[in-house]
Design a protein that fits this description.
DNA polymerase, domain 1, Rossmann fold, binds guanosine-5'-triphosphate, 39% helix, 314 residues, binds magnesium ion, 13 strands, globular, nine-stranded mixed beta sheet, alpha/beta
Length: 314
């Protein structure tokens, strides 16, 4: 996968600068929408130079256009949003159809709640035709906990009568080792969006951030990095991609009434994610799901199950 910024020719911008951006994993598509100050901070390239390059990138990609559009045109643009069925009717109903492109959907829950299982299932579902609830697309699976199992993909694919060899070919996998690597990998995805990528999964979003930046003394740095990461994911989603992340729950000692558990990551994650779904364990293989923090979606709960076939209706 070649890097498209290596061909940029801008007066005053030399080879060294371009190479620094390439080494940090930046591509034309990403630079076009990235925040110049964050790019500058992570690469050491002066912010004015990053601005020049970003402007050129937008021109080349045809993204330079009207800043203001009518609401009518915006409605047209929003029609591009598509949904991927979860393969479970109850969950689809909760999500008003499935996980959306141009949005981040977050699955939150304690260990064993079913977050990783939903991710596996979505990586298969996205490959189905539009009539069957998919997007005829491919998935990227960013695995920060080492819990991705191709064998499980085979099981789910077989349960749906699909050719599992093909299904495995359409999932692009990366194991993450630390937060820098995780952020780097997301930037790299901009290089190959065109290979029909419709779904990007990050399982889990913040486990590395929590272990690398523990305690109150590291909180500010951690949240700053996490903020940049969530924004990278949002920008990725704007290329008509559904982004799905998982998140852990932590106990908050300051809660006296109600639920002492809350999603990790604080406001940065809460504001960055478009849809938040809280998963809880029920009896045996039953799981309960509920939308949280949504001003316009129902707070009702639904039940699903995890079986050999994947995530299913009860
Ligand atoms: P953490 O990553 O530990 O926070 O949990 P998680 O929310 O990702 O949980 P996960 O999705 O891994 O769910 C685990 C549950 O799925 C377990 O209770 C397993 O019983 C069930 N499960 C996982 N794989 C299979 C499988 O192949 N067959 C069946 N029947 N159940 C499975
Ligand atoms: Mg998991």
């Amino acid at each position: 996968m070649s890097n498209d910024i290596s061909d940029l020719k801008i007066s005053g911008i030399g080879r060294v600068t371009i190479n620094r951006l390439i080494d940090a994993g930046y591509s034309l598509k990403f630079l076009a929408v990235a925040s110049p100050s964050i790019v500058s901070k992570t690469t050491g390239v002066p912010v004015e130079k990053v601005r020049l390059i970003a402007a050129e990138a937008r021109k080349l990609l045809g993204l330079e256009g009207e800043d203001f559009i009518t609401a009518k045109k915006y409605m047209e643009i929003r029609k591009n949003i598509e949904k991927i069925s979860t393969g479970c009717k109850a969950l689809d109903n909760l999500l008003l159809g499935g996980v959306e492109t141009e949005a981040i959907t977050e699955f939150i829950g304690e260990f064993g709640a079913g977050k990783t299982q939903i991710c596996h299932q979505l990586a298969v579902m996205v490959q189905l035709s539009k009539d069957e609830g998919g997007l005829d697309g491919r998935a990227v699976y960013i695995d920060s906990e080492g819990t991705f199992r191709p064998e499980r993909i085979v099981q789910i694919a077989n349960a749906k009568g699909l050719n599992h060899e093909e299904v495995l070919e359409n999932i692009i996998y990366a194991r993450v080792y630390n937060t820098d690597h995780q952020m780097f990998l997301i930037r790299k995805i901009f290089d190959f969006i065109d290979e029909n990528i419709k779904l990007v999964i990050v399982d889990s979003l913040i486990s590395n951030f929590r272990s690398e930046y523990p305690g109150r003394e590291n909180l500010a740095t951690r949240q700053q990095l996490l903020n940049a990461h969530v924004h990278d994911l949002l920008k990725l989603s704007m290329y008509n991609i559904a982004v799905v992340v998982t998140n852990q729950v932590v106990s908050s000692p300051d809660v006296f009434f109600g639920n002492p558990l809350k999603p990790a990551g604080g406001n940065v994650v809460a504001h960055g994610c478009t849809y938040r779904i809280w998963l809880k364990k029920g009896k045996e293989n039953k799981r309960i799901a509920k939308i949280i923090d949504s001003p316009y979606m129902s707070e009702s709960e639904i039940i699903f199950a995890i079986t050999e076939d994947g995530v299913v209706d009860v």
